[in-house]
Design goal:
The complex is a heterodimer of chains A (305) and B (406). Chain A is α/β, with parallel strands linked by helices. Chain A has helices at residues 16-30, 52-64, 83-94, 109-116, 132-145, 164-175, 192-200, 234-243, 248-253, 282-287, 289-301; strands at residues 42-47, 68-73, 99-104, 121-126, 154-157, 180-183, 205-208, 220-223, 259-261. Chain A folds into 2 domains: 11-131 and 288-300, 3-Layer(aba) Sandwich (Rossmann fold); 132-286, 3-Layer(aba) Sandwich (Rossmann fold), CATH 3.40.50. Chain A is built from 11 helices and 9 strands. In chain A, the strands form 2 sheets. A 5-stranded parallel beta sheet of chain A has the order 7-6-5-8-9, covered by helices on one side. Chain B has 406 residues and is of the alpha/beta class. Chain B has 2 domains: 2-52 and 343-399, Urease, subunit C, domain 1 (Roll); 57-332, TIM Barrel (Alpha-Beta Barrel), CATH 3.20.20.140. Helices cover 28% and strands 25% of the residues of chain B. Chain B has 12 helices and 18 strands. Classes of the chains: A alpha/beta (305), B alpha/beta (406).
Amino acid sequence: MKFKGQSIISIRDMEKEALLKIIETADAVKRGGHKGCLEGKVVSTAFFEPSTRTRFSFASATQYMGGKVIGFAGTASTSVTKGESLVDTIKTISGYCDVIVIRHPVEGAARLASEAATVPVINAGDGANQHPTQTFLDLFTMSERFRDLSKIRVGFLGDLKYGRTVHSLAYALALFRAPMVFIAPEILSMPGYLLEEIREMGSETRQFEALCDIDVSLDVLYVTRIQKERFGDMQEYERVAGTYRVTPETVRALTEGVRIMHPLPRVDEIDVEVDAMENAIYFEQAHNGIPVRQAILGLVMGTIS
Amino acid sequence: MLVMRNVHVPLQSGWERRDVWIEGGRYRRITPPEHGDFISGARVVAPKAGFLIPAAVDPHVHVREPGYDYKEDWESCSKAALKGGVCAIFDMPNNKEPVTRERGLLEKRAIALKKSLVDFGLYVALTDGNVDEIKETKIQKLISGVKIYMAETTGGLLVRSDRALLQVFGQPKPVLVHTGGAEGLCRILHFYTKAKKRVGTLPVLYICHLSTKEELTLVEGAKREFLSLKAEVTPHHLLLHRKNYEEYGSVLPNLGTPEDAECLWDGVARGTIDFMGTDHAPHTVYEKKKKSPPAGFPGIETAVPLLMTAFGERKLPASRLVRFTSQAARELFHLGDGSIMPKNSASCVLFEEGEWEVGGGYETKCRWSPFEGVKTGYRTLLTVVRGNVVYRDGKFNKRRVRFITA
């Protein structure tokens, strides 16, 4: 895959080779390579809904590489629900920068923007849809610990039905035919269409309702939040949330050396005492957002090839 | 391998001719016509004027069974759906015995799993007394949404309790409302606003069958405040009005004025109205000819071809049609991306363009249509669900269906 001039919209547009290229580039960047490669470039962050963490991460990634950032965040999301005005906005911004990073509350908005833009568009989240750079940094973090992505077994824990992070990452791992384990209460289990697709792609999958039922070893436990809003009955929520809470004891009961990952922010699904354990790598994971986003920016602008 | 040669597919740029390759349940390749190599053993469909779109998802259907299966049942309704290019239906709870508890849902699911030819989901009806039960996991895992009747209609399920109308927003599934008009709409918005102060994330509030300019204006205003507010319109409120339709008794909400219909079209074009819901509500011709006929029109069989014709006449983009009839509902029920792109699951309907009239050969048990005699520019050649041809030239192929819970 040629990256220069390409928009990054969905993990589904990517091939395995492209993912490996991103990982390889991010690795080089993290080791101090490609310094100053964004010199003279302008990145615009068009955030139609606020997300401080993601926006800072892109801004920081750009500035460390010598580029400049312009942008806005949190426009009242009203008039932009009409696709027409989004197209006009993007066409205009296209003339002011070398790449557009977009976040938008409406699904499909990033794809629409990429069709209107004359510069590459990077999707930083549209609705409940896609957030591909999160998936890249998850894969990169895993590849740092386990060289061969086709051999690692990841266990996904929590809200697997609605979590877009899980859906994208599971799809990406399926490109490597990596085995996966899904642990969730029945009402939050992986959607059937996705499970089927992942199996078709060649990944072995197992499903469990409780962490203690798992009878295979795990290399990574990928934890996501179980949201109160998914439950009608608060007692049921308390019960489920309690069962799926990760504590030092749950970690010790798992395979030795298992890595705990989480897309952050966390509330209380991982006990803070886990932070100090060697298994916890979620803050490193978040910090990897910088080299990964630098790699992406450099690749799509053609300053890294 | 199934190959559809030289068919029009809806892209952002408009209709474009493509060859579409389907294998193993998915779209494999979408190539400019005749660019792909011919593969022996592939089934090739090459219609003269073929138009391929993602199969529709209908969030608003009254299948009638159990209870009124002389009007319609799961087999006849799902056949009508497939013939109309619809691959998933969501069934309303106002049966003879209203579906308000677990038992009714389980009974209906069992019937549908046996008889339906399309994927399906179920709604439970809110009553003055069942909101706590609806919140429980045993019901949550069976439903795709909760239906509220704020005005009298078939089934007598009117909700009066303020507590129920507020508490229903404390559960996560979409809340669908038959408002009965602007007054009921304001009332439910009042409770939605009140609930916003108490709950972190509100469930989707889905306003069924908008029918007047007034309702559209209200929804447009409220949408500025609530991203999770969605609205539906039926094909008959878009295409029929008091001046061009008088036969066969009534429908609820009543048909509007020609001006109302024009405003609803504006709402569709601007995206204020999110979904097409057919509100397929079959009654027999005998019942409809009675002095005080029951309210409701059948519509699932004719909706998509008629709308496609109207979208063409109004020069509305193909991508809008796909959002309106399929993609928006897919997002609501978490069904995955249905657009015609490589790797996506292939559920689609192939139409032939030409000149026809609605009439005769109905699959719906009630065997009539309010659109009888209306000109249509498209007719269904075949319907594909997950890569399998399930309807072709009046013949059906029953495959395993899925029970959907949003």
